[in-house]
Known about the structure:
The chain is α+β, with helices and mostly antiparallel strands. Helix 1 (18-41) packs antiparallel against helix 8 (248-278). The protein has helices at residues 18-41, 44-56, 59-62, 96-108, 111-117, 124-129, 131-134, 248-278; strands at 138-148, 151-152, 162-170, 178-182, 197-213, 216-225, 229-230. The termini are close together.
Amino acid sequence: MEPSSRPTSLAKTPFQTRRERRQFVLWIFFLGVLALLIRESFRPANHELFRLLLQSTTPENHLRLADQTEMEPLPGMDESVLSAVEDRTPLFHKEAPAVKMLVELLQNTSAERLQKACLGRVLFAQYTQQPAVYRGKLIHLRGVAVATGEEKVFDDALGLKKWYPVWMLPDDCPNEPIVVYCLELPENFPTGEDIRQKVSFNAFFLKMWPYASQVGVRSTALFYAQKPQWTNIPSDTFTKNAWPEIPFWMIFLASLALAILLLMVINHRVRQEQIREELPEKLDLE
């Protein structure tokens, strides 16, 4: 019986090694992520985010917080008062002096003076991930107000009887709300749970503050401002995105699961091909 020769076609089999199969799956995964980024770039709400990201990569913007000599500091701002503020907690009594200081600055300072002291645009990811860095800073915010109302002020030391929380979706993160407590609202400004009005603020950032949402307790950025800058535009002007809003973590997990499934299918097919290749074409029983 003559031994059958080992087939040579195995060398031509695609994805012969595990390394080649892993590289192929990674390429598919990265192409999927690239397609997702391209899709997100066409969302009008993300245009401002991409613009700010490009600006933040320029050398002159890296030290924006460290070098603010062109800004005029506000008299009455005491940084030591802000040291008692804690993030991701309710407002404690020990934080009342910090709130009082910010409210008094807003009451006693003109809008023009606040504009000169404003830090400018700051990304949502910056003040939510580094709250201690931006605490007490006057930041320019832009976005869509989605809800507002009137709340009674229970702290007599603030010198206010009521204020107006404005829930807003910032331009650079339109799926995550922030709240701005205003001393007043513009004339004819709509109130309610679904107002969708384009607004901007020069607002003091205080802390990350927990609130009750439909999915449980979450944290959002808490600001204080004089009032929103607003142009009366019908609320039906702002329509929802045509694309369904799917959280990024769900998209990432789905992409990862698809990549793993693809790798398993390729491994199975390669193993079956190797078994067929290793079998002799015919057996000589003589």
